[in-house]
Design brief:
alpha+beta; 2 domains; four-stranded antiparallel beta sheet; Immunoglobulin-like
Length: 161
């Protein structure tokens, strides 16, 4: 065979093969680009959700910064001696703070401090309790208070001896 004829056939095949190879590379590149764009869109959506969540957390902290939360527990001091501890676990001052134990519990609060005029964040006070035969083991404690605007708030908790 003559090299000139082989070169002529090779030129014809190359003129068809190179564009087909370029087309194949373009299709692969397009598929990868579409997949990459889809992934980028998903990442953008997740970033947006994260930012929305962060904004919601900041708003929640701002809201909680202005709220008081009054809680109460019965504390065992010694044999037959109990106290009701009332504290402010919130971030703001609470006003006219009081705690009431369910009447069916047969517990008596020796209240000399309630309603407490104001209770700052992180502060507490205690009241003496009288426990006697017939006192329930479990009972409901209801704390009530007002915020700086005078809005009443209430929290119910379970207490036990």
């Amino acid at each position: 065979m003559d090299w000139a004829i082989i070169w002529c056939y090779a030129k014809e095949y190359i003129t068809y093969i190179v564009p087909l190879f370029a087309l194949l590379l373009s299709i692969v590149s397009l598929c990868k680009s579409a997949k990459s764009q889809k992934l980028q869109n998903r990442v953008s959506e997740l970033e947006l959700k994260i930012k929305e969540y962060e904004v919601a957390e900041v708003e929640k902290k701002k809201t909680e910064a202005g709220l008081a939360c009054i809680e109460a527990r019965v504390i065992h001091i010694s044999s037959g001696k109990y106290r009701l501890k009332v504290w402010n676990s919130g971030q703001a001052t609470a006003y006219k703070v009081s705690a009431i134990i369910d009447k069916n519990a047969n517990l008596i609060i020796m209240s000399s401090k309630m309603p407490f005029d104001f209770l700052e964040a992180g502060k507490s006070f205690e009241e003496h309790l009288i426990v006697h035969m017939g006192t329930a083991d479990k009972f409901k404690i209801v704390t009530t208070w007002e915020d700086a605007a005078g809005q009443p708030h209430q929290k119910e908790q379970m207490g036990s001896l």
